[in-house]
Amino acid sequence: MANIGFIGLGNMGGPMASNLLKAGHSVTVFDLSEEAVAELSIQGAKAASSVEQVCDNAEFVVSMLPAGKHVRMIYCGENGLINHLNKSTLVIDCSTIDAESAQFVGNELAKAGISFVDAPVSGGVAGAAAGTLTFIVGGTDADFNRANSILTDMGKNIFHAGNIGAGQVAKICNNMLLSILMAGTSEALQMGIDHGLDPKVLSEIMLNSSGRNWTLELYNPCPDVQENVPSTNGYKPGFMVDLMAKDLGLAQQAAQQTNSATPLGAMAKNLYNLMQNQGKGAEDFSAIFKLYSEK
Amino acid sequence: MANIGFIGLGNMGGPMASNLLKAGHSVTVFDLSEEAVAELSIQGAKAASSVEQVCDNAEFVVSMLPAGKHVRMIYCGENGLINHLNKSTLVIDCSTIDAESAQFVGNELAKAGISFVDAPVSGGVAGAAAGTLTFIVGGTDADFNRANSILTDMGKNIFHAGNIGAGQVAKICNNMLLSILMAGTSEALQMGIDHGLDPKVLSEIMLNSSGRNWTLELYNPCPDVQENVPSTNGYKPGFMVDLMAKDLGLAQQAAQQTNSATPLGAMAKNLYNLMQNQGKGAEDFSAIFKLYSEK
Amino acid sequence: MANIGFIGLGNMGGPMASNLLKAGHSVTVFDLSEEAVAELSIQGAKAASSVEQVCDNAEFVVSMLPAGKHVRMIYCGENGLINHLNKSTLVIDCSTIDAESAQFVGNELAKAGISFVDAPVSGGVAGAAAGTLTFIVGGTDADFNRANSILTDMGKNIFHAGNIGAGQVAKICNNMLLSILMAGTSEALQMGIDHGLDPKVLSEIMLNSSGRNWTLELYNPCPDVQENVPSTNGYKPGFMVDLMAKDLGLAQQAAQQTNSATPLGAMAKNLYNLMQNQGKGAEDFSAIFKLYSEK
Amino acid sequence: MANIGFIGLGNMGGPMASNLLKAGHSVTVFDLSEEAVAELSIQGAKAASSVEQVCDNAEFVVSMLPAGKHVRMIYCGENGLINHLNKSTLVIDCSTIDAESAQFVGNELAKAGISFVDAPVSGGVAGAAAGTLTFIVGGTDADFNRANSILTDMGKNIFHAGNIGAGQVAKICNNMLLSILMAGTSEALQMGIDHGLDPKVLSEIMLNSSGRNWTLELYNPCPDVQENVPSTNGYKPGFMVDLMAKDLGLAQQAAQQTNSATPLGAMAKNLYNLMQNQGKGAEDFSAIFKLYSEK
């Protein structure tokens, strides 16, 4: 079992740290919220008195933070952990952030002799609690294998996308594509409905034809076609419009960096921005169906 | 075994009629091309000396024609078959045409006491030859069941989409969605490549995540990720850009009829129009990948 | 002064016929609404007892109808006017319809020796009343000149776009472009506002730079930048979202006919469809600004 | 006459500095290219031996640099000019950069008691030489007025857009709108041409109707409609596709910052990215017309 430092005990980080404890690891936690720290302490974690303390004797430091600037600051800012980490520690950043920040932090740590992988997750709060998250990892083969040994205690599918930063890139490629599947499926279903088709029948046909995609399989955006999906449950999230909009923003930022053309991705982003304008940011991202159906 | 009249022996109709013969049916064929008729005659078909003759004693009349105007003319034009068909005949139009024309012809025939289903196909020339086509059928339950009895000799998946015209609507909903999957997957893959990711690895990750869709499963648009797909074979079709553009035109026509909003479908249509402008109409529709990758 | 038959006395047709009377012409009118006919009779028009009667001794027949199918039916349907018109009559169809219908009717009339121009208008109900409409005319030079002699009694700008049908094409090209200017200007203004800029200042800068366009000059979509425009008046039309959506539908139909790529036009159409979905069809088309600004 | 320091003597900066000399100012110049410095020295400029030297006794420091990172570095990097500038100097940054960088540098200088305006230009190399540039300025009223006194020696239209950063925002709002006008006008013209209309006639009609915009007035994208425009001259720039793509990237970056929806702007950006993919980055930005017309 390993000594693990854990930074960031929010909606996702909390249950992730909890699962590491359940697996038998020794976990030292840090968060600005004393409540969050207390909660994990009850479950057996050690509370760090300062963020630097999570580095002490840590074989792994795992972080789960809101945005690139926080990750840059914690590791590479003034008094950054870069000055406190042991060379034998592997840093695993599970935050979903821009690839540029992941590469920057990874490279700075590398210069200081410290190993780093970016390992953004998908699967949401439910997946974090159940330990069924997906991790998409960027880093060397050796670091991936080492990270894998503890990521499997928090998740089910662990992918190795490539070098440092590749985890972030692969995740936003996937989520950009997902937004396109969701919007495209919604358009096709509503056009069928407008012509008198039954959405269950049309969904079944497309699911068994070349229109098949993840949203038709598991996350149909039209109410009452599938059970136990957000659309049938008043679009309660699930995965919020605001979070999808955030990921689509990261995707456009990445496209910008490489001059990549992404006309559908840019359109999907703007449709999600229109939903935010309409005050639907806190609904499930499948609520884009309503953009087409509400008349 | 049934008496079947068959009109339209082109790239698709020829092999379809051929499969009906192989299944033991008695088939009377008509086409403007004498060559096409001769080809089927060798295989055992009776050559009709006029289009009206396909109606004689026919339990089924199957047609496979290029556009709505041809279907309207053959059945409901001056000297249309509407005046020659028996009331016991079931008309099965397998053409991919606008839903409005299918509904018009179906309704006119109904007034004359003649049954009709629209049954557009997908699966391409290869599927027509192999008898593995998909049929999406619009019509009553009784007519669907009757049609089904001979469609299974030409295809593998037979769907019942709803009333007359619903076959056409479901097909273009599916193909509109397919074009969105193809373009969206191409964008996501190329953005990953632009950031240094291996398209095989990225494809594998998205295939096992929420980006999963038919194109990643069976028809990856990036060369050399999968074997035996058009992208790995110089984008030889397969399903031509020109045909996808035609279907997307029918989709926009249908959207127009019902004021349905289809921003991604409209965009995909225009991207395929741009490909036609660039002289790529005869390439496989997965060649949209080149719009993003060629630099 | 001329003998003129006038068909269609709606919101636009009524005041147009009225202006012909004021200019001293002898006008025979027909409409399905007896009220509309009575209204014009008071102003000095002769009421036709049947639509055929507008043809009697007419030097011009002017029509103002809702859609292509009405124009086809009135002129070329069973008992169409094609059988009643004199060869010396010039038919001037002022309806905004699809170019294909205009060409069909024009060609059928030509075969019967009757001259035809399509002459769709812009300028709205206010322009119809004030006699300041714009007419965009398709037809031969001779027919254009002849039409011009009475169009100047109803409008201010009379353009000759080309042959029969060209009037319709030019009008929808213009209106498609207008919708793009309106949506694009709205986006730019709101992005500026989101960054703290004053919309008056930004409008003034763009009006005097390369962003200059008709909407910034005369029809600013942001409330309180200009006086006496719909945006400053609660988006009371003006030119309704529903009418712009209709014209954009005709534009996409025309694009379809020639396989023309119009990605921005298709997008603008879909944004107007989304507004209709939101129940804003009766607001002025500049209300697209709210799609961006409402938060 | 004023003492002016000038940093960045490229295609734009060179002729701008030259115009300041012609107006009688005393100008001290710096550039990494010795050639560029020598060229200005011949015209009467003093060559600074280091970039710090441009600050000596300067009433104004003008900079013209490629991107935000250069502006940040020169002023606020290690050994940045922030440590060398007098409090009485007004810094005028004429670079086109992201608004965030302009605000960052402006705020840092303000903390050190030094005044700053951002003043991006439009008008191209020809306008720089002729002294007819447009400047869009962000800063306080007092600083704007002070800047204005020397900007008039380099340009014709000087706008005050708002506070620090507002010059950058207004410029990209305008250029985003311009790209939409250019693409939209190209679509409308080509759709007309596809239907047999003469582009000169259609341009004239739209120019006098609600489709009127700057591109129809002064920069028609269709060859041979206007004289002395890039389209009639083989699309020789003018304003390059690559530069428009850069500005559209800055626009999307700004939209990202504020979650602004810009569907048409995002689409225009992607169409320009597609042109870059096709190797047309060095052509004039009106060459987007070819995307629609080449068949």
From TrEMBL, chains A, B, C, D:
The active site is at K171. Belongs to the HIBADH-related family. This is 3-hydroxyisobutyrate dehydrogenase. PANTHER family: 3-HYDROXYISOBUTYRATE DEHYDROGENASE, MITOCHONDRIAL (PTHR22981:SF7), 3-HYDROXYISOBUTYRATE DEHYDROGENASE-RELATED (PTHR22981). It comes from the Bacteria. Residues 3-162 form the 6-phosphogluconate dehydrogenase NADP-binding domain. GO terms for biological process: branched-chain amino acid catabolic process. Residues 165-292 form the 3-hydroxyisobutyrate dehydrogenase-like NAD-binding domain. The keyword Transmembrane does not apply. Signal peptide: none annotated. Pathway: Amino-acid degradation; L-valine degradation. Keywords: Branched-chain amino acid catabolism, NAD, Oxidoreductase. It catalyses: 3-hydroxy-2-methylpropanoate + NAD(+) = 2-methyl-3-oxopropanoate + NADH + H(+). Transmembrane segments: none annotated. InterPro entries: 3-OH-isobutyrate_DH-rel_CS, 6-PGluconate_DH-like_C_sf, 6PGD_dom2, 6PGDH_NADP-bd, HIBADH, HIBADH-like_NADP-bd, HIBADH-related, NAD(P)-bd_dom_sf. The keyword NAD applies. Its EC number is 1.1.1.31. GO terms for molecular function: 3-hydroxyisobutyrate dehydrogenase activity; NAD binding; NADP binding. It holds the Pfam family NAD_binding_11.
